[in-house]
Amino acid sequence: MTVAERPTITGAVDTDVHVAPAAMDALLPYLDEYWQSYIDDATIRLGGMAYPVGARTTGPPAPDAYAALGEVLDRSQPERAILSCLVLDGVHRNPHYAAALATAVNDWLRDEFLARDDRLRAGLTVSTLDIPAAVEELERLAGDRRYAHVQLPLRNDIPYGNRYYHPLYEAAERHGLPVALHAWGRGGNAPTTTGVTTTYLEDYASNAHIAQTQMMSFVAEGVFSTFPDLKVAFLECGFSWLPPQLWRFDKDWKGVWREVPWVKERPSAYIRRRMRFTTEPAQLPRDAAQVAQVVEMVGPELLMYASDHPHDHGDSSDALLAHLGEDQVEAILRGNARAFYGERLG
Amino acid sequence: MTTQLDVHTTPGGQATKAVSLVDVDIHPVVLPPGLARRLPERWAKHMERYGRRAPFVTDLYPRPRNKGMRADSWPEGGVPGSDYELMRRQLLDEHDVDFGILLCLIPHDAGYDHPELDAAINRAVNDCMAEEWMDRDARLRSSILVPFEHPELAVKEIERVAGDDRFVQLLLPAAGQEPFGSRKYWPVYAAAAEAGLPVAFHTGGYTGHRGAGWPSFYLEEHAGYGVVMQMLLTSLVCEGTFAAIPNLKVVMTEGGALWAAALRWRLDEAYKQLRDEVPELERLPSEYIRDHVWFDTQPMEEPDDPAHFLQIVEQADLEDRLMFATDYPHWDFDAPANSLPRGLSKEQRARLLAGTACELYGLPKVVPVERA
Fold first, then answer.
1. Alpha helical stretches, state H, chain B
2. Mutate to test the interface with A, among B60, B203, B265, B317 (most CBs of A within 10 A)
3. How many CB pairs below 8 Å do chains A and B form together?
4. Count of domains for chain B
5. Chain B residues lying within 8 Å of A282, measured CB to CB
6. Residues B118-175: pLDDT tens digits?
7. Which of A192, A294, B304, B320 has the greatest count of CB atoms below 10 A from its CB?
8. In chain A, what are the domains?
């Protein structure tokens, strides 16, 4: 079944809808002369390794303008749609360039999409190579509630619980902005313990592995103890891996808690209060009774609907919604996201 | 305890019992003098002067719990796992272990060293396992350690040792210098499969980095062992290892097992979308996992609701793929009497405690009562 043949979910809070400028030209007006000539001289193109153009999971190009997105919205009539623009996930290492590009992306998102449709929200893009610059960008835009979360690339150089990032979390918490880790991210790092993968298939499946390590990092480093109101979402990372990893994490914490005395409760308690996971990709069993078991173990309150347009991960998420009760469906389609984002969706 | 009911007498008059407990993860240690004694002079001197190249895992992530060991497992003047007599008393005798499989982890990181030193360390450890452990106790079996970063040397070591059928599997860590699905390692797996030996991957090796940097704490390292196993198994499946070596059997050791259910769904779903990239995979990833992969129980993920354990065992089709392990002498030792998941049927317990391991490793199902 292709995406077009699958049932359309309407009226939801859609927490992950992709948009991307078709080319660098769209961002140039938001960059100063220095960066314009830098981009021109180096012939920098937008792109990355995350979504190969011919892979079935990639789908058609992400909407590059409001007109193209409009067709999607006409079909799905979302209550709210949160836009993810991942063009910053390149392999560049220049922290100044990353900061300038983040600003350009945020301004482009506002002018091209947010200003044209009240239903739209967007992830606030920041440079993860320069946290003071990220904080500055957050301060510039956090007052605008149309930026629903700070969007971070799942794959970076340092795990996300590390103190390196804490100034960003302090600012995010102060502004009531959740943090959202989106699948993929910084290219060039192997998604394994050691070497690079020779297949896209493996790289694609690896988002779930890195998400598990990032989830543990937030808890183990005490982010949730230091920032008691901070919330974290995982976008496009799956969720069916959660139960065994939570059991394992809790059990090990009981054994070696003295290493992390700031973790006052069992890790799963923090995760269940503060973290949410989007429904696409769903990565579920084919058997309906087993789907129900998985949802019960995960806890439907942890899930937020995402279409992940235009990506096509298969039809597992249809099975998810088909096998749930009415209350659970309502929570996943709207209630959980409303509670998580609060006034940002207002 | 062996009870009267378990004991039978053969026509020859020897009292026998059914094998009811196999421990698939015991960690003996070879102390530096024992190792040096078995090394060629050049490498003994080298070790004395330069030591090993790899960082010690406990330097990277110190174990803040009884130095990482069972508190009562320190022999006088030695380190846990270095004293056969103490291990015999505390483990084999006390828990009535019928077979115990030795997994000496000392060579895990020897791939950092000179290839010949790597080979010499592995050879020395294999000889030590035979002479100082298995020769002393008929209940013991061992893994073969190999210089896996140098496949041609590894294959030689397999050929040297595999004739001794007390060596029941090959042992590799959970990560090498390349992902373990890499073709570089296939000759090692092929040689093991050819010799009828499963390949066990045990937590450890070059596993600190987790694809997005280094965690800070042992808690993350330890709770992430299963994540590293997911990475490893993903690599083996996606790079076509099982498709290329159809008689390969692998054992995931000390990485948990319940994550296998979600991994199967994840890889199957991805494969259905992306199969045009990997036509060498002729079957669903879950089918390769089902046919090629075994798991041990230590440390097992423990849900609050024991029903969830049984549900995942069914979802992941693990019922005849789980094997009991104590992880002696490490701090999170599991005793067979009180560490099994609740709710298992009698048959499930028997299979988990001994039956599956006997089948995988070709161990006898009946043994003489007096064997030590």
1. 32-37, 41-50, 57-60, 84-87, 115-128, 151-161, 186-194, 218-223, 225-238, 241-244, 259-274, 285-292, 306-315, 346-350, 356-361
2. B265
3. 237
4. 1
5. 269
6. 999 999 999 999 999 999 999 999 999 999 999 999 999 999 999 999 999 999 999 9
7. A192
8. 13-345 (3.20.20.140)
